[in-house]
Write a structure and sequence with these properties.
The protein has about 150 residues and is α+β, with helices and mostly antiparallel strands. It has one domain: 2,3-Dihydroxybiphenyl 1,2-Dioxygenase, domain 1 (Roll), CATH 3.10.180. The chain is about 15% helix and about 40% strand. Strand 5 (about 65-70) and strand 6 (about 75) form a beta hairpin.
Length: about 150
């Protein structure tokens, strides 16, 4: 049994401020492969791995990420992303390296050989929002504590 993990989870909605709609479109659509949803002059929606992420042009609402030390690395406290399957994570990681993304935390494996073994990487979108993409070697260990 997978405690706390809903396999048929409803999509979530997240809305964030941005500086520029077209730069944001390029990053999320062209680089990450997210389909564009509805949009207007001052906002745009994306299908972010099955979830709705909306961005509203409001540059004055943006701030520099605050960080916290996790496993000896400076992790942005406010971040979002997706848990991908292992192969998709590897493919995305390689594509982002090829595109010369400036990683906050370069792709690496945490807890190797242990429960909760996961691949992870952090980088900023063009608006300064921190994203983390991860993958678990065994999805049953997403909430594993030991």
């Amino acid at each position: 049994m997978i405690t706390g993990l809903k396999l048929n989870m409803p999509p979530f909605h997240l809305a964030l401020p941005i500086r520029d709609k077209e730069i944001t479109r390029h990053f999320y659509h062209d680089l990450l492969g997210c389909a564009v949803g509805r949009e207007a002059e001052s906002w745009i929606d994306f299908d972010f791995f099955g979830h709705q992420v909306s961005f509203h042009v409001k540059p004055e609402a943006l701030s520099r990420p605050i960080t916290n030390i996790v496993d000896g690395r400076d992790v942005p406290v406010q971040h979002f992303g997706a848990i991908l399957d292992w192969k998709t994570w590897q493919e995305m990681s390689a594509r982002l390296i090829e595109q010369k993304i400036d990683f906050i935390i370069k792709p690496y494996i945490r807890f190797e050989g242990k429960a909760g073994e996961q691949a992870t990487m952090f980088f900023l979108d063009p608006n300064g929002h921190a994203l983390e993409f991860k993958s678990f070697k065994n999805k049953r260990h997403i909430f594993a504590t030991k």
